[in-house]
Amino acid sequence: MPDTITIIDDRTGKKVTVPIQGGTIPASAVRELDPQLFIYDPAYMQTAACKSAITFLDGDAGILRYRGYPIEQLAEKSTYLEVAYLLLNGELPTKDQLPKWTHDVTHHTFIHENMRKRFVDGFHYDAHPMGMFVSSLAALGTFYNDAKDIELKESRDKQILRLIAKTPTLAAMAYRFSVGLPFVYPNNDLSFPANFLNMMWKVGEYEVDPRLERAMDVLFILHADHEQNCGTTAMRVTGSSHADPYSSAAAAASALYGPLHGGANEAVVRMLEEIGSVENVPAFIADVKSGKGGRLMGFGHRVYKNYDPRAKIIKKTAYEVFEVTGKNPLLDVALKLEESALSDPYFVDRKLYPNVDFYSGLIYQALGFPVAMFTVLFAIPRTAGWLAHWQELLIDKEQKISRPRQWYTGSETRDYVPMYER
Ligand code: CMC
Questions:
Q1: What is the set of active-site residues?
Q2: How far away, in angstroms, is 298 Cα from ligand 1 center?
Q3: Residue 264 pLDDT > 90
Q4: CATH code of the domain in which 321 resides
Q5: 352 C-alpha vs ligand 1 centroid, how far in Å?
Q6: What is the pLDDT of residues 31-70, one digit of tens each?
């Protein structure tokens, strides 16, 4: 069977045959038939906008791999910093590379004093931490004149290091500001997740529980990349105009902020709180099905039509965290919701399964994070993924500035009507 496809333009009889490669056909086939003919594909449901060697995802089989390594193995054996290196460089770091990378990240965690004193202090007292995080990311770029030198590899590497190292600092700063606590400076003696937890929670004596440090690291690993999701697409689209990586990451974080994307973990906990108890689950499910109750947050995914492999690991991690913190009382509601949805034809027929956000919020809450911080917690590790894609985009010779076309549905040309005739 030939690995080609032939498209015939029935208007002209013109036909074009193109290869099927990597499960895609080139859109240039359509251009060849008629340069004024475009593919109408809202939300890019059937469009591959790039080649990528970073993350492999099979939504039907529930498979996720970073650079070929199954997410289950990385979550069990690796660390977030090692995974960030893997995503960015394509290979796991060697025995010599890992200490150097860890040292470099650890020694870039501080931010300019003016960021805190002048920029962050300017926010309103009840500003949402994710809004603060998004704008701080963009503002951070203004402190580095070399941020715009995106064509130089040394400069790109420098910005990547800064962004990965400083996002936990920005995140913790946003939180401490929102509760009126003094800022805790990074501690270079701690691991990446322990330093973050220390910046978040230290008031007087504070020692990070190693089990919670590990849980935080596992959550960071699971959120580090997810191929061409909405946020990463925003990163690529913005980066394609050769904007600096701080501005591009701010665009990606803005996309992540929405409740259909990274904001879903916040929405899940709010939903569970609203349901309140196990007895109310059947009525809630009935409302979702009838369209009265909104969506079952934390369920469904554009690509996964099976159990999200990250959700499985997160569910297990939740139990490990609850051993330290005590069980989150909302867990029973979540378990009942999952059980009910997975045996209900409405959800089964639509292949709606728990996604990464269904259980993560319960862990974050048990760790003491307020719901408003949840999306920020997603954004910290996703920075590694965004930057891996940004870097890949910039060295890809086939890429250009992103510029989709449209199907114009507005008025035909018409003459301006003066005010006295309207
Ligand atoms: N609860 C109830 N019904 C749903 C849900 C849900 N969570 N998700 C999808 N559906 C229904 C939807 O109403 C539609 O039904 P019908 O065919 O009768 O009109 C059908 O399933 C297909 O839905 P869709 O909106 O066309 O699917 P999509 O691929 O555009 O949406 C999604 C994917 C994630 C936006 C959606 O499933 C959703 O809104 N889920 C809840 C929000 C959520 O948990 N988001 C986190 C996503 S994972 C983390 C991340 O990557 O950001």
A1: 261, 301, 357
A2: 9
A3: no
A4: 1.10.580.10
A5: 8
A6: 999 999 999 999 999 999 999 999 999 999 999 999 999 9
